[in-house]
Write a structure and sequence with these properties.
- By secondary structure, this protein is an alpha+beta fold.
- It folds into 2 domains: 4-67, Arc Repressor Mutant, subunit A (Orthogonal Bundle), CATH 1.10.10.10; 73-230, Chorismate lyase-like (Chorismate lyase).
- It has 8 helices and 10 strands.
- Strands 4-5-6-9-8-7 form a 6-stranded antiparallel β-sheet. Strands 1-2 form a two-stranded antiparallel sheet.
- α1 packs across α3 and α2 packs across α3.
- InterPro entries: Bact_HTH_transcr_reg (IPR050679), Chorismate_lyase_/UTRA_dom_sf (IPR028978), TreR (IPR012770), Tscrpt_reg_HTH_GntR (IPR000524), UTRA (IPR011663), WH-like_DNA-bd_sf (IPR036388), WH_DNA-bd_sf (IPR036390).
- Keywords: DNA-binding, Transcription, Transcription regulation.
Length: 237
Amino acid sequence: MTNKYLKIFNDIVDQIESGEVSTNSLLPSENELRIQYDTSRETIRKALNLLAQKGYIQKIRGKGSLVIENGKFNFPVSGLISFKELADKMEGSVRTIAHDVSLIKPTPYIQKQLQLTNKDLVWQVIRTREINGKKIILDKDYFHQKIVPELTKEISEDSIYHYLEKELNLPISFAKKEVTVVEPTAEDRQFLDLEGFYNVVVIRNYVYLEDATLFQYTESRHRPDKFKFVDFARRNH
């Protein structure tokens, strides 16, 4: 027998996908849904939580459950792919905005991430990724200046990886990645469209050349409603 919360979930999904409940509208309150489906508040909360997990709604403090566009982009966690390569597979308008491209002395944190000395410099690149008019990714990249001697705003708004591989002939090979979910910082709220969202998905990348030289550290900070973080796994026998 199907659990009641799954029946409620499926019913609301049908209403959303049929257009009976439109994108950017609010679902009835938990109490109204409890009365409508003649069930407990806990059952309604389970159904709403599943709707949120599947990308149909976003819970907004003080407002309720907002029906959101369910067209999520696949983001390959295990792959090493540039945003431009990913954007070429997306529908709609895509734009990269470079807010800062500068050669700096790294902070102690960045120095630790890139295993630098006190004398090393890094290129700091702060970029917003805008998809269909919404700023949904904040990329903070740091490149070892000894490996990447020059960067420009024009390169950063096009494709840094294309420049590194085709112009500098750098053999980019592999990366170590860490994925966390955190509360947005003031910087996140400055550069991203986060109204109503109270967490961001952060992917930290440590990128290496073929000779295992660590040359790039990246924090890619994503609005949670637009991406599915996917991977491929094979069981070893």
